[in-house]
Fold this protein.
Amino acid sequence: MTFAVAVFLLGVVTAVTCAIPGVFLVLRHQSMLVDAMSHAALPGIVVAAMVIGSINSPWLIVGAGAAAMIVVFAAELLRSTGLLMGDADQALIFPGLFSIGVILISTRFAQVHLHEDSVLVGDLNFVAMDKVIIGGYDWGPKYMWLMLSVLAVNLVFTLVYYRRLELSTFDEAYARSRGIRTAMLNYALMALVAVNVVAAFNAAGAVLVVALVVVPPATALLVVRTIPQMFAATVGFAALAAGLGFWLAYIFDLATSATMATVEGVMFLCVWLVTSIIKRSSSQRIHRANLTGASEVSQSSPVASAGA
């Protein structure tokens, strides 16, 4: 397997994996929680590295996930007070956590290969270098198999809890009346998002992972009517943007992860413009049809005939 193909496959798998849990986040209007969790994961990584004494330990994943969940629990605690509106609870937590992580990197890890730029946007090409070699055959990057494992977890969780997620998303009160523990289900969904954010951290960083999770389902929401359709469209948009973004980065020598995120943004803008034009044209046709119908009724009415 050539390096270009390895990066291409890794990019597509990472984009599709991250986009799946984003479907219910977009439907629940919790998209910006991904941004908070991705930024909060940084101090978790740094603190774990300080405690373990290594930046290669798997315990860094545990630290990142724990820090991401701190945002969820702390935001819920602040929201329960009723003193804050909107997503102010998240905005009060993650900037402080992220800034602590950046300070620790620039001081305690200044001489270590752990730079702020890679933390912010990741490095898809770098993580694709470590490959799985079995029987003399190249089976692709190890990181791709990690993301495939996370993808499997996403699919299993979605299939098992689909009906409960659907009910709690659109009518939480009704879901509770059916015996669904909506709070625990929400925490489980947030934990799944945390796993995806942490897993994709090396490839997309704290900033670009938000685009991978949120933009494809937000784009799909513009053109579909049912949740199954939204999942299918989300996967399609994510794979298309990742593939196109990789080849543009490859041809023009651009940052791969950033180009993928840019393509996703441009794709959303294009779909939004097309759907807006179609809806406006449809509204105008309906309006003209209503005017024509009203005119015909007026001309054929007995009152109009008598007046004539």
